[in-house]
């Protein structure tokens, strides 16, 4: 009985574009059928995080989703689809990407999105989550193909922001909002890793040599200033001389013999 009623309603709607008298008559009969068989009526419950999009004879009822809570559908004329409104995450499989400077790298990531408009997610795209996954893979390759290796390694936040904007713009007609995109891992070829390690080691050695040279230059300047100060005061030179002898005796634990008194050497120092 339900199948015969559904066929009548379908052909009436297809021929005129509207329900017409016959269609409305069958809808009334369906309501009477539902009322009589009340325990057998299809009742549905959607959770707080879900919405139901109801199709009655191929058209969306009231142009808005139902829920949350309890609602019923006519068993002969209505069909419905549940849509989850929670944030969904998925991993982007590793993609082999050729950067702008002709370096092949393997990059993967993660995308967070949620359904913002249940009607668009059902009516405008066949499978919204699967379509978003495929689009994320192609967007990752397109965005990273315009970057060189240095930008890829140093500017992950900018790349993630660019991917999010591109995905959000593309999925807006589907009723999907892309909340976040993150680059998880960038895998380089082994030969390139060894070359980069050697380059980094050479750079560290060069910086160490530069720092040592700068230290020697500062030390020589300090010694020059100290010599000028000591030259202005002969007593300071004598005290420095005695201090040096004391330090040598302490460290080496040896006996020091003065061949000449220090005063005799003043004439040589002045000369």
UniProtKB/TrEMBL annotation:
| Membrane-crossing residue ranges in chain numbering | 24-46
User: What subcellular compartments does it reside in?
Assistant: Membrane
Q: Where is the Band domain?
A: 41-200
Pfam families assigned? Band_7
What does the UniProt keyword field contain?
Answer: Membrane, Signal, Transmembrane, Transmembrane helix
- Where does it primarily localize? membrane
Q: Give the signal peptide range.
A: 1-17
Gene Ontology CC annotations of this record: plasma membrane
Family membership noted in the UniProt record: Belongs to the band 7/mec-2 family.
PANTHER family reported for this sequence: BAND 7 PROTEIN-RELATED, STOMATIN (EPB72)-LIKE 3A
Name assigned to this protein: Stomatin (EPB72)-like 3a
Q: Which organism is it from?
A: Myripristis murdjan (pinecone soldierfish)
Species lineage, top-down?
Answer: Eukaryota, Metazoa, Chordata, Craniata, Vertebrata
